[in-house]
Design a protein that fits this description.
Largest sheet: none
Shape: elongated
Strand content: under 5%
Distance between the termini: 17 Å
Helix content: over 70%
Number of domains: 1
Radius of gyration: 19 Å
Structural class: mainly alpha
Number of helices: 7
Order of helices and strands: HHHHHHH
C-alpha cells in the first residue's frame, strides 16, 4: 500500500488515493476478522502446542486471556492504515506517533489503571482498550485528513 499511496499522493490523484486506502482497509479488516475468528475457535489447541503435558489451568486461563486480547484485532486495521498512509505521504512524525499510540502512549496508562481496578485481568483488557481507542482515533483522524485533502486540492482530486 505504501508505494501506491505515495505515488497517488505525490501525483495528487486523491480519488485514487481514497480507493487504494479503502481497498487496503477492507483487506485488513477481513484479515484481522479472520484471525479473530480463528483465535476464538482454536485457542485451546494453540495453547496445547506450548507444553508437553499442558495443565488444564494453563490452557483455560491462557485461552481466556488470548480471546480477550483478540477482541481488538479488527480495530488494529485503522491504526496500521493511518500509520502507513502517513509514512507514504512523507509525514514520519505523524506515522511514528500513531504507531506509538497503541502500545505505548495509550497502553501503559491503561495497563496501570486497569490492573489496579481489575487485577491481573486488567492487563488483558488493556490490549482491547488500546486497540479500541487507537483504532477509533485513527479512523476519525483518517476521515479528517481525507476531508482536508479534498478542501486543499479540490481541482486535483482526479483519477
Amino acid at each position: 500500500m505504501v508505494p501506491i499511496v505515495g505515488f497517488n499522493f505525490g501525483a495528487q490523484f486523491f480519488k485514487r488515493l481514497h480507493k487504494v486506502i479503502g481497498f487496503a482497509s477492507v483487506l485488513l479488516v477481513s484479515y484481522f476478522t479472520l484471525v479473530f475468528v480463528l483465535v476464538l475457535v482454536f485457542t485451546e489447541p494453540l495453547f496445547m502446542l506450548f507444553a508437553k503435558d499442558p495443565e488444564p489451568a494453563f490452557v483455560s486461563e491462557g485461552a481466556r486471556a488470548f480471546r480477550i486480547v483478540a477482541l481488538g484485532f479488527p480495530l488494529i486495521t485503522f491504526q496500521v492504515i493511518l500509520s502507513s498512509t502517513y509514512q507514504a505521504m512523507g509525514y514520519p512524525v505523524r506515522a511514528f506517533l500513531i504507531a506509538l499510540s497503541r502500545r505505548f502512549i495509550i497502553f501503559i496508562p491503561f495497563a496501570y489503571l486497569l490492573t489496579h481496578l481489575m487485577g491481573a485481568d486488567g492487563i488483558w483488557w488493556t490490549f482491547f482498550v488500546a486497540d479500541f481507542l487507537t483504532g477509533t482515533a485513527s479512523f476519525i483522524i483518517y476521515l479528517y485528513e481525507m476531508r482536508d485533502l479534498k478542501k486543499k486540492f479540490p481541482e486535483s482530486a482526479h483519477a
